[in-house]
Specification:
- The structure holds two protein chains of two kinds.
- Chain A is built from twelve helices and two strands, in the order αββααααααααααα.
- By secondary structure, chain A is mainly alpha-helical.
- Chain A has one domain: Orthogonal Bundle (MetI-like fold), CATH 1.10.3720.
- In chain A, helix 7 packs across helix 9 (198-228).
- The two termini of chain A are 19 Å apart.
- By secondary structure, chain B is mostly helical.
- Chain B has 15 helices and two strands.
- In chain B, helix 11 packs antiparallel against helix 14, helix 11 packs across helix 15 (289-299) and helix 14 crosses helix 15.
- Classes of the chains: A mainly alpha, B mainly alpha.
- At the A-B interface, helix 1, helix 3, helix 4, helix 5 and helix 6 of A face helix 1, helix 4, helix 5, helix 6 and helix 9 of B.
């Protein structure tokens, strides 16, 4: 799409795009280029000497047991965040969509967790489940379940998933609700006249028509679980106990800043970049298709 | 509604209400904790209802600080000049709130400003490399800070921007989504307006200020809400580039304090800090809900 009417100026357009382009070059392209460059170098921690090692950092990484463990953990983690998050918000959206009176009030109360920083969300849930003062941990102990995310790896992972889902639920909810409200009422009414009950109508009409929204949210949630949950992990568990919650993005940070393994961290960055690019391409191709739908 | 099924309506209300209670519970407990004194919060089980110490806790956090790490130093802010000069003394935590506000507003305003002019150039001018610029901006969508942590830190360090507001703000203000949103909106503006402005002798910048900018109000408002939340909630970036407490953000301060093992933890004060860290973005969402929903839905298109 192009505008018919355009202004004729020689330098003005360059002046107008220059701030955006300058910042993009300095803070996006330059560091990304460096990440790719560093990923083929072996550098000592003080940046003094570095030598070209070609793909050694990558082969080293791919033969590293810790990296595999972290990659597998990230897959499990994002599958959990996406499935629990989408399930809960779909249930809430379908129920909220049925409610006519008070729907806006419910919506108002459901949207604000999005505004809480992931790092603060981690602190909040850590407080609820704190082994010594947490009210939920105390209640669980009262019914005989010992919950201590500080020493139990699976429980730590469960808690990180809960906090991450809580932070993302309002986003999913809003998109599902918008998707539900876009479904023509005549379709539902026609099915009702033909004798289909609410359950049947949901599975045969609503669910298929909602699948584009669901797929879009699936990609968004996977990207969120991969990259947006750093704050949750850092303030809740710091990747522990015993690396039970060390997802890839946390490992990049940990190896690069704490471990001072620049080449290894850069190689991890490059792999993550490929993952994001792949996910973004999937997302855009899909959205394009939805436009022609 | 298609048909009347009372039990299903009751069920809907019940499910949504239970969902609401679960979603609100962490914030409720945080609020409750911020209204008790230290001793009460060490008793087990901790209370479920607010206590009488709310004002004390908030005053202490904002003027004295947490004690220990975030209580050692004070900051003095001087406003005005000459005889009208006033100075306010506050805790490090109050300072981190001001830092967060500066960072969030800086990112928000910066993003909107550079994106709207870039979109204006791309839509309303024909010039060599136009599409090249467009794709250069587009590709930044694919590179979140998280995947290029170490090298971006290196760039910012070599520019001498560590421990500074410019370092907190500038690297985060390039925005493909905002540029796209404005581009999309400008494409929908009728060409007749541009023609009329040209016939009347208005140059491009005059057209931008007097016609395009006022028309973009709703788009700007929607972006403002989304970007303010984005800016306020930044965590990894300030964590990397700040070493001085006077440049910490409040989200960082909360997370750091939560990970310090005190001999006698002050849960009441920590949760007061958490409340303060949540308050501004939550208020923005609650009071600008329509713009928030619009911004959320449109920036994802």
């Amino acid at each position: 799409m192009e505008k018919r009417v355009a202004f004729n100026e020689r330098w003005l357009p360059y002046l107008l795009v220059s701030p955006q382009i300058l910042i993009t070059l300095v803070f996006f392209f330059w560091p990304s280029g460096q990440a790719i460059w560093q990923s083929v170098l072996l550098e000592d921690a003080f940046g003094g000497n570095s030598r070209f090692v070609f793909l050694d950092n990558f082969t080293h990484l791919l033969s590293d047991k810790d990296y595999y463990a972290s990659a597998r953990l990230t897959l499990v983690f994002s599958a959990l965040v996406a499935s629990v998050g989408l399930g809960v918000s779909l249930l809430l959206a379908v129920m909220a969509d049925r409610i006519i009176r008070g729907a806006t009030a419910y919506k108002a109360f459901l949207v604000w967790p999005y505004a809480v920083a992931p790092a603060v969300a981690g602190v909040l849930w850590g407080f609820l489940f704190n082994p010594s003062v947490g009210i939920v941990a105390w209640s669980l102990a009262a019914i005989g379940i010992e919950f201590n995310y500080v020493i139990n790896g699976n429980q730590a992972l469960a808690l990180v998933v809960i906090a991450a889902v809580w932070n993302q639920v309002s986003y999913n909810f809003l998109f599902f609700l918008a998707g539900l409200q876009a479904i023509p009422k005549s379709l539902i009414e026609a099915a009702a006249i033909d004798g289909a009950g609410p359950g049947r109508r949901f599975w045969d009409i609503v669910f298929p028509l909602l699948s584009p929204t669901g797929f879009f949210l699936l990609v968004v949630n996977i990207i969120y679980a991969f990259f947006g949950t750093f704050g949750v992990v850092d303030s809740l568990t710091k990747g522990g106990p015993a690396k039970a919650t060390e997802i890839l993005v946390f490992k990049v940070y940990n190896d690069g800043f704490r471990g001072q393994d620049l080449g290894g961290s850069a190689a991890q960055s490059v792999i993550l970049m490929i993952v994001v690019i792949a996910l973004t391409v999937v997302q855009f191709r899909f959205i394009e298709r939805r436009v022609h739908y | 509604m298609v048909e009347n099924r009372p039990w299903l309506t009751v069920l809907s209300h019940a499910v949504v209400l239970i969902g609401l209670v679960i979603i609100a519970f962490p914030v409720w407990m945080t609020f409750v904790a911020s209204t008790h004194d230290q001793q009460t919060m060490l008793r087990s089980p901790i209370p479920l209802l607010p206590g009488p110490h709310m004002v004390d806790n908030y005053v202490q956090i904002l003027t004295e600080g947490y004690g220990g790490r975030f209580g050692s130093s004070k900051h003095t802010l001087e406003l005005g000049w000459g005889p009208a000069k006033i100075s306010i003394t506050m805790s490090t935590i109050a300072m981190t709130m001001i830092n967060s506000m500066i960072m969030a507003l800086g990112i928000t305003i910066g993003k909107i400003a550079i994106s709207i002019i870039a979109a204006f150039a791309i839509v309303y001018f024909r010039f060599p490399f136009r599409m090249w610029f467009f794709w250069a901006i587009f590709i930044t969508l694919m590179l979140p800070v998280e995947v290029r942590i170490v090298p971006t830190y290196g760039v910012v360090a070599s520019l001498g921007m560590l421990d500074s507001y410019s370092g907190l703000i500038i690297p985060l203000i390039a925005s493909a989504t905002a540029t796209f949103l404005f581009r999309q909106f400008f494409m929908s503006v009728p060409d007749e307006l541009t023609e009329a402005a040209r016939v009347d002798g208005a140059g491009p910048m005059r057209f931008f200020w007097d016609i395009l900018l006022p028309m973009s109000r709703t788009t700007i408002a929607a972006l403002f809400v989304i970007q303010f939340i984005y800016g306020w909630n930044q965590y990894l970036w300030p964590l990397l580039i700040t070493t001085k407490e006077s440049f910490y953000t409040v989200v960082m301060a909360v997370s750091r304090q939560a990970n310090v093992v005190d001999s006698v933890p002050s849960w009441n004060l920590l949760m007061t800090m958490a409340m303060l860290a949540m308050l501004p973005p939550v208020l923005v969402v609650v009071f600008m809900q329509r713009q928030f929903v619009r911004g959320l839905v449109e920036t994802e298109k």
